[in-house]
Amino acid sequence: MKTPYGKDCKYYYADYFRGKTTQECRLIAANPASDAWKPALCQACPVPDILQANGSVNLVLRARVAKGMLGLLQKVEVTASCREHRIEIRDPKRGCDKCRASSQLGNQAIRQSGKQ
After folding, report:
1. What's this model's pTM, rounded to 2 decimal places?
2. 77: confidence class by pLDDT, cuts 50, 70, 90
3. Domain residues of the chain, as ranges?
């Protein structure tokens, strides 16, 4: 679904049917330790860019609303992990190094078998 700022995000949900005005981020709603979410946070949220750059089925994202500098501004903080290898991922846009290495080995084996 498109966020209020025009990016596609599978975690954003809005319902305006028959007078309803429901908006939520289901990724942040799943984290009880997060501060309250508001639609303005979608403007600088890194999640849509991460989802566009990394389509791995093993990518698990967790997000929370955190206070920025001096506690005045709020921002979305995202952490990622690999479901298959059970490790934290430093750069969610790149994904899991182990998954990437194994897929490159698999692609290399396919290319070599096609040459024979």
Report:
1. 0.81
2. very high
3. 12-115
